[in-house]
Write a structure and sequence with these properties.
α1 crosses α2. It is globular and about 50 Å long. By secondary structure, it is mainly alpha-helical. It contains 4 helices and no strands.
Length: about 130
């Protein structure tokens, strides 16, 4: 999955907390989010409108939350585990470890493998 596919998928599924998101989809969207935020913050600073960056945070909050929850689902964890990030320092580090870790191979209780692993339909080469 490339960055364009990942961003389009995340924006299309902006309130879809069901299913799974692979590492590529999650991290490409995080990169997109950070780059957009930094660029808009710089532009907002140059034109003396610092609240412009806040609009990016508000506009991308739901897609960011949804892909984070779907990524937790890929690691076979409940999306509610996202709330562990509320624990100062330790919670956020634990979330990063889970997000960086490999997802469950094959289907799990949250849906089919986003990478097309065992249990998911695959194309037959002819």
């Amino acid at each position: 999955m490339n960055i364009q596919d990942a961003v389009m998928t995340c924006l299309r599924k902006y309130v879809d907390f069901n299913g799974r998101a692979g590492k590529a989809e999650f991290w490409w969207f995080v990169l997109f989010y950070v780059v957009v935020y930094v660029v808009v913050a710089i532009i907002g600073g140059l034109i003396h409108v610092p609240a412009l960056a806040g609009l990016v945070v508000l506009g991308l909050f739901l897609p960011n939350l949804a892909v984070a929850v779907r990524r937790l689902h890929d690691t076979n964890r409940s999306g509610w585990m996202y709330l562990i990030g509320l624990i100062p320092l330790v919670g956020f580090i634990l979330l990063i470890v889970w997000w960086v870790g490999d997802g469950t191979v094959g289907d799990n209780q949250y849906g089919p493998d986003p990478r097309g692993g065992a249990g998911a339909p695959t194309a037959v080469a002819s």
